[in-house]
UniProtKB/TrEMBL annotation:
Xref: InterPro entries: Class_I_gatase-like, DJ-1/PfpI, Homeodomain-like_sf, HTH_AraC, HTH_AraC-typ_CS, INH-QAR
Keyword presence, Transcription regulation: yes
Species: Billgrantia campisalis
Region (Disordered) residue spans: 320-343
CDD domains given in the database record: GATase1_AraC_ArgR_like
Protein name: GlxA family transcriptional regulator
Entry-linked PROSITE patterns: HTH_ARAC_FAMILY_1, HTH_ARAC_FAMILY_2
Entries under PANTHER family matching the protein: ARAC-FAMILY TRANSCRIPTIONAL REGULATOR (PTHR43130), HTH-TYPE TRANSCRIPTIONAL REGULATOR RV1931C (PTHR43130:SF3)
Keyword Iron set for record: no
Alphabetical keyword list: DNA-binding, Transcription, Transcription regulation
Lineage: Bacteria, Pseudomonadati, Pseudomonadota, Gammaproteobacteria, Oceanospirillales
Length: 374
């Protein structure tokens, strides 16, 4: 994961983000990306961000749930954007059009930051704008994406921020990505305040993983392997020995190890350890259990051994994980965009007004308005 970000320039000009909507985009993911921006403005008491929804022709477009959304503008309208986020959903391969690709490539030439939520990364990859980048996409598309775009470094993380690309998987993951970006722009106090307003129990970070169903990765061709993993997941506090696991599904230990190496690319003991450590991380972040209790709940007989394994796997000891002390948080690149050179003044006059302004006016009566000093 690349973390070569720099702190943004302090400026009174709000960051402008364009959301490119693909046919059958996921409304949930769009809202998860926009709502943190609205709340950032509300808590700051001023316009830190403005946003625009865009389609090819500016006409209403259908979300995956059938609802029609009227965009703010067509992509032909020249807007001074700092970032473009592609919002995908069902059938991204069918939804991406030549006009999308050409426009995204043009945005890249203007040094705009680019992002994707849900399956929006597909459009960026199709435009050749993700080659050599680490990216996230909804787990349903992982296999197809890897096949179609072998130069893209796919991860199973909830979201990925790599240089001037920011991509998130589906559901609420765009919320976590936006909280991370806002925190880098304006400080952790603001992102924490937004999280509280949305009743988030915690802010998930880049290292948090999607829970990809093993059946999705393996299909139905390896029932014994699926059964073994299910046994492991059901026995984290008191791990079952590998010989016993093999006996449960009536195979030899050598066959067991071959299955894991072939389909999961690690040894069965390593995979079991990963399950236990992942569970330990959840308990550290989401409960008040002591480190000793967490170690015991995850099958470690010794706290020092647990701490050693945890640090080797996650890069931080359990105590620091609980206190939120990890790797230094990189800051986003300052990519403030100037007005488009040579743009037609008539077109500029027709440019839409971001709904961020109206949302901020309506928020002035809220008790939390301007409650976070910047």
């Amino acid at each position: 994961m690349t973390t070569s970000f720099q702190a943004p320039q302090k400026t009174a000009t709000p960051q402008a983000i364009g959301f490119l909507l693909l046919e059958n985009f996921t409304l949930f993911s769009l809202a998860s990306a926009i709502e943190p921006l609205r709340m950032a403005n509300q808590l700051a008491g001023r316009e830190l961000y403005r946003w625009f929804t865009l389609t090819i022709d500016g006409e209403p477009i259908s979300a995956s749930d059938g609802l029609k959304v009227t965009p703010d503008a067509a992509i032909t309208v020249p807007l001074s954007l700092d970032m473009v986020v592609v919002c995908g959903g069902v059938g991204p391969a069918r939804a991406v059009q030549r006009e999308h690709i050409a426009w995204l490539q043009g945005q890249a030439r203007l040094s705009r930051r680019l992002g994707g939520v849900c399956t929006g990364s597909w459009a960026l990859a199709k435009a050749g704008l993700l080659d050599g980048y680490e990216i996230s996409i909804h787990w349903e598309c992982l296999a197809a994406m890897q096949e179609a775009f072998p130069r893209v470094a796919l991860t199973t993380r909830l979201f990925s921020i790599d240089r001037d690309r920011a991509t998130a998987s589906g559901g609420t993951a765009p919320l976590d990505m936006m909280l991370s970006l806002i925190g880098r722009d304006h400080g952790r106090e603001l992102s924490a305040g937004i999280s509280e307003m949305f009743i988030c129990d915690r802010m998930r970070g880049e290292q948090d993983q999607q829970r990809v169903p093993l059946k999705h990765m393996l299909g139905t061709t390896q029932p014994k392997l699926l059964e073994i993993v299910a046994l492991m997941e059901a026995n984290l506090e008191e791990p079952i020995g590998l010989d016993e696991l093999a006996d449960y599904v009536d195979i030899s230990r050598r066959q067991l190890e071959r299955l894991f190496q072939k389909y999961l690319h690690c040894s069965p003991s390593r995979y079991y350890l990963k399950l236990r450590l992942t569970r330990a991380r959840q308990l550290l972040k989401q409960t008040s259990l002591s480190i000793i209790e967490v170690a015991s709940a995850c099958g470690f007989v010794s706290t020092p051994h647990f701490s050693k394994c945890y640090r080797e796997y996650f890069g931080v000891p359990p105590r620091d994980e609980r206190q939120g002390i990890g790797s230094p948080t990189p800051s986003t690149e300052p990519l403030r965009s100037a007005a488009l050179a040579g743009a037609d003044p008539q077109h500029l006059a027709e440019a839409p007004v971001s709904s961020a302004v109206l949302a901020l006016v309506q928020a002035q009566g809220e008790p939390t308005y301007a409650s976070v000093p910047l």
